[in-house]
Amino acid sequence: MNLSLEQPIIYLITKGEATESNFAVKRREILEIIRTAVDERISLVQLREKNLRARLIFELACEAADLVRRSDTRLLINDRADIALAAKADGVHLTSTSLPIGDIRAHFPDDFMVGASTHTLAETVDAAGGRADFAVFGPVFDSPGKGSPHGIDVLAKVCSELKPFPIIALGGIDGANCQAALEAGAAGFAAIRWLNDAASLRSISSRLIK
Questions:
Q1: Which residues does residue 189 pair with via DSSP β-bridges, in sequence order?
Q2: For the chain, domain boundaries
Q3: What are the pLDDT digits (tens) for 144-189?
């Protein structure tokens, strides 16, 4: 496993708004926020653009990988381990419909980073047992379209049960509650809406990283 990131782990997930028709505009937006993440030493960036064809994801991933290279920021590609490897990204983030973690570990380089989405304690245990580098657990707080939140007490239980395996909190994370997630035992936090904002990244970097 390859998780050698300082805590707290700050995990920016791209918005998923890119399509073939708006690719030129969204490409610039995505690369600009990744540049800011690199400048602010944000731990992880997940390229999560589900509406793009593989060729465009690969093109964008190559450009993003160039931006993070030789920096403190690591780049993960959502679901597509093959594209991540070909684009020289740092790893993949797996969902419930992705290839099993064990298959990635068996067929990809040892230093290929693997994160996994989880929504229950059992799924998080499976991620740790499968040798993921970390699990993203959520939703912790209210988040549109993500179902009922687990709440901070459940997050604390998962973190306690899996310690020292890194758990990253997701779901409704913002400036008002990110510290609560860390105090519950999370190794870090992930967000889409809050972290896709340059001012937020600079504020977080000033408070928690620099």
A1: 10, 169
A2: 9-209
A3: 877 899 999 999 999 999 999 999 999 999 999 999 999 999 999 9
177: tokens are 């509650």
- Cα distance between the two ends of the chain: 26
pTM of the model: 0.96
CATH classification code of 9-209 = 3.20.20.70
Query: Is pLDDT above 90 for 209?
Result: no
Task: Count other Cβ atoms within 10 Å, centred on residue 69.
Answer: 13
> Structure tokens of 144?
């549109």
Tokens of 25: 């505009």
133 near 1, Cβ under 8 Å? Answer: yes
Give the number of C-alpha atoms closer than 13 A to the C-alpha of residue 109, restricted to the C-beta side.
Answer: 13
